[in-house]
Amino acid sequence: MKQTSPTASVPGEPAKPGTHGVGDRIFSGLAIGSGVFILALLAGVAIFLLIEAWPAITASSDEIPGGDGLVSYIAPLAFGTVLAATLAIILAVPMAVAVALFISHFAPRRVADTLSYLVDLLAAIPSIIYGLWGIAVLGPALVPLTEWLADNLGFIPFFEGPASTTGRTMLVAGVVLAVMILPIVSAVAREVFTQTPRGLQESALALGATRWEMIRMVVLPFGKSAVVAGSMLGLGRALGETMAVTIILSVSGGVTFNLISSDNPSTIAANIALDFPESSGLDINVLIASGLVLFAITLAVNMLARAVIERQKLDES
Amino acid sequence: MTAAAADPVPAKNGPTVRTTGVAKRIDVADLNIYYGAFLAVKDVTMRIQPNKVTALIGSSGCGKSTFLRSLNRMHELIPGASVEGSVLLDGRDIYSPSMDPVSVRRQIGMVFQSPNPFPTMSVYDNTAAGLKLNSKRMKRDQMDAIVEKALRGAHLWDEVKDRLDKPGSGLSGGQQQRLCIARATAVEPDVLLMDEPCSALDPIATLAIEDLIEELKQKFTIVIVTHNMQQAARASDITGFFNIGQSGDPGILIELDETDKIFSNPAHKETEDYVSGRFG
Amino acid sequence: MNPDPLIPFPEVGEADNLPESGPTDNRIPTWGPWVVVAGTAAVLGGLLALTAFNLALLIFGTVIISIFGIYLWARLIEGRRQAFDRAVTLGVTSLFALAMIPLVSLLYTVVSKGLSRIDAEFFTSSMRNVIGEGGGILHAAIGTFIITGLATLASVPVGIMAAVYLHEYGKGKLKRALTFFVDVMTGIPSIVAGLFAFALFAIFFGPGIRMGVMGSVALCVLMIPIVVRSTEEMLRIVPDGLREASYALGVSKWRTVAKVVLPTAMAGIVTGVMLAVARIIGETAPLLITTGAFSSVNLNPFSGRMDNLPVFTYNQYKNPGVPPEPYIDRAWAAALVLIAIVMVLFLVARFISRRYGTELRR
Q1: Interval C183-206: pLDDT, tens
Q2: Does B81 reach chain A within 8 Å, measured CB to CB?
Q3: CATH class of C123-360
Q4: For all residues of chain A together, what is the average pLDDT?
């Protein structure tokens, strides 16, 4: 007779003396129930958004704001969303790698802990406060720079100008988003940098490599896919970030690559936050439909990031 | 309230802690132990005598620890692990479907390789953990008596009596291991399994534990797995030798006999090679 | 690792790279880099002061010139590879400092602009019948407390039990699916969580519905995955030996988890929960579309609009009256209160993990 008991007193074993069988069943039931609840919640997010977006999806195109249908309503917003997030990721990734390296390999051990705490704090500051800071401090501070860019590099489409005098530009929004996602990217990178096998690092140093040569030969190759994955998590966050963009960006709605003028495309999230409180009827359904598009985009980016992380874990083992 | 009829702690009747007495024997018959489909230990049949110390020796990976863990149904906690055959505790099969693994472990206690006191608990709470975790209702002075008895029995009382409320993790390694022994004996099991209890300890702490084992067999049936042949020779009455053919093969029990005989005049060539250091 | 030569060893002609008499010779002293940076800053600052002073230009100029300076100095006495190493070190350090500028600037701005309205009235009155100056955040603070509190009360048990499932019980498809979707859930944009809560309630109560509890539902979607992740991380570092020790004492599985595993991980779990609260307490977007704004105290999360600190901050800033100054001041003061709350949560979390969480790290 062969008995297979994968866990102690699994539910379903014959009745046995004592009370812990019941306790075990209740406790594991609660645990499984919580897990199932979370899955149901996520499914609920998708289902309820779809239900409320449905009237907008099936509406005739002249009922949609703008009068050209849902796709041409959402397309410029999606463009603005991707533009702002791309700008943010381009600015944030090199900085984040430097920050991660500084904490893992350059800063003295005693302060490294405190420094990473400061970076984490950067991630916890509410986005609305970043928005306020962006419009009150960063925007005005960057006006001289954008004017200089418009005057001297105006032939590049990004800096076509005319430069905004208030600083409520795509460039400022991008910089603020970059600051907000920097801690996310650097946290993932830092984790892997510090896990670089000591043996590899020490053998490089023992061969006479300088610290930078060791980092370039051992640490960076080891952490490469972590940086990619972290960047994608950051991208996902930047795509969905709402309040900072809502406050900073002055919106006109067109599709343009000009980063420094006061005519900017809005983003999906900022558009919802701006219009939702004053909307009614089908307009609300249209906004929810745009939210569904945002949900789909961020879901795809995040799943891609997780796939990269998983593949790296497989490579390591 | 109590889990099994055979529960050895008569909670209501005060601390009737046994000082000597007949512990229980274990009869193992045709025991095969699996990890998933992999047969790790094959066809073990042996009798473990009451109130004796039985040492299990053998090279690494021969299955002696796996065998030990199957004696109190700890083995099956590993996902996919299973057992076939029978293990009788004084004639009752601990693997019978009506037997609850949790109550089996209350009768057959275990001490592990590295000391593992619960870090959130004091010395006192660690000693009483088996009772407290099972929410035994008990008067404070009864509990005190049991804790003192267990700590005295583990030769630890004099060292910790002034810091019973301090964390158990603050003790030295040897003290921690004796605390773990006190914790295992406080629930009054019939059998005490020890899985290389001294391998993380220095020689002095090791000798202290060996002295303790000698004394504990007055009350308990003891099975100890050890890497250290001197320890088996010093501390045990009966020794079993496990071996494997080559890696991938299951471990088997080669020989079980009086310790003196195993170390002076074993019946099998393999045993002789091993105890004389020619192999393993 | 790549097959290229690991180290660019000095070529024969580069004998000047090799120490001549001993490894301690020919080194830039430890204070060297500091002197280079300070010197550059002083000289450049002087030059700029003569023409047109610009802080940003001074900082960037100093960084770039010092990197070149330290490179040249090290190139002369330590060799090419050491020089590059020093340049990179200074460069990485500068980039880190650059990344910290927003934090410093932001904290300075919020504190300096917010302090003017930090007074007794600000904490003890609502915006009921307030036009122009005066008024306070009492109603918004109560709203934030209720909304965040409800979200925490719902998220923490679900999150912890789901983590217990994942680490102590889970196997097979359900475990893999849950792990994956919790990861996915951490990436849901907060505005989408808000839309979900709105859609959920709009179906039953119509599109005009605004309630405090809707905000809590939205925050739950954001908070649960954070709690699951951090709790699972903490359960992972509880040694298996403790579980085995408990089983070997004849303790059942659920008592082992509830009385040994969870208490051992408790400090870490509490830390994770506090950080999760810090993360959601400033969420604005989901509350903007679910709780609405309201100028008086509302204690009932199941009925009517309920103001809260983030939405209050947004509305004071975005829709000021005439003159706008009192509104803008209130926005900054509310932002200061929000940051203070987040900081306190962070510091307490850190204290807890330092003070009580050390047993496992050894």
Answers
A1: 888 889 999 999 999 999 998 888
A2: yes
A3: mainly alpha
A4: 85
CA B252 – CA B43 distance, rounded (Å)? 7
Q: Provide the sign of the torsion angle of the four alpha carbons C333, C335, C339, C344, taken in this order.
A: positive
Tell me, what DSSP letter sits at residue B55?
E
* Backbone dihedral angles phi then psi of residue B123, each to the nearest 5 degrees: -55, -45
CA distances for C352 relative to C270, C349, C360, angstroms? 8, 5, 13
Delimit the domains of chain C by residue range. 27-107, 123-360
Pairing type for strands B251-258 and B238-244 reads antiparallel
Give me the mean pLDDT over the C282-288 stretch. 93
Nearest CA in chain C to A133: C106
Contacts of A208 in chain C (CB under 8 A): 7, 9
CA-based nearest distance A13→chain B, Å: 8
pLDDT tens sequence across A248-260: 888 877 788 888 8
Q: Where are the alpha helices (DSSP H) in chain C?
A: 32-50, 55-77, 80-114, 120-124, 138-164, 172-186, 190-205, 212-236, 240-248, 253-256, 262-281, 285-288, 309-318, 325-356
Those residues with Cβ within 8 angstroms of residue C119's Cβ, 6 or more apart along the chain or in another chain: none
B249: left (phi over 0), alpha (psi -120 to 50) or beta: beta
C-beta separation of B114 from B200 below 8 A: yes
* Cross-chain residue pair C102–A49, CB shorter than 8 Å: no
- Give every CB contact of residue C109 below 8 A, 6+ residues apart in sequence: A133, A136, A137
Which residues 143-162 of chain B have a CB within 8 Å of chain C? Answer: none
Q: Which of C249, C261, C359 to mutate to test the interface with B (most CBs of B within 10 A)?
A: C249
The token pair that represents A129 in the structure block:
């406060």
Extract the tokens encoding A199. Answer: 């043996």
Torsion angle defined by CA atoms of residues B79, B80, B84 and B87, in that order, rounded to the nearest 10 degrees: 0
Q: C-contacting residues of B 165-184, CB under 8 Å?
A: 167, 169, 180, 183-184
Listed by number, the residues of chain A in 42-101 with a beta carbon closer than 8 Å to a beta carbon of chain C are: 42, 44-45, 48-49, 51-52, 94-95, 98-99, 101
Q: Token pair for residue C119?
A: 């007074």
Tell me the per-residue pLDDT of B27-61, one tens digit each, with 9 for 90 and over: 999 999 999 889 999 999 999 999 999 999 988 88
Angstroms from A144 CA to nearest CA on chain C:
11
- Top mean pLDDT of A29-33, B20-24, C123-127 is at A29-33
CATH code of residue A297? 1.10.3720.10
A109 inside domain: yes
pLDDT at B6 over 50: no
Confidence check: pLDDT of C10 > 70: no
Domain residues for the domain of A91 are: 59-316
C interface mutation test: which of A125, A172, A181, A219 has the most C CBs within 10 A? A125
Closest to C127 measured CA to CA, from C293, C298, C295: C295
Cβ atoms C161, A31 nearer than 8 A: yes
Could you tell me which of A54, A63, A58, A45 has the C-alpha nearest to residue A283?
Answer: A63
Q: Among residues B266, A162, A31, which one has the least CA distance to residue C160?
A: A31
pTM for this predicted structure = 0.85
Residue A284 lies in a domain: yes
Tokens 């690792």: give the residue. C1
Is residue A47, in this structure, part of any structural domain at all? no
Closest CA to B207 of B178, B186, B227, B180: B178
Question: Does A201 reside within a domain?
Answer: yes
Tell me the backbone φ, ψ of residue B240, rounded to 5 degrees: -115, 140
Q: What is the pLDDT of residue A7?
A: 38
* Cross-strand partners of B38: B35
- Tokens 């090791």 label which residue? B206
Residue in B105, B108, B199 to test binding to C, most C beta-carbons within 10 Å: B105
Q: What domain count does chain A have?
A: 1
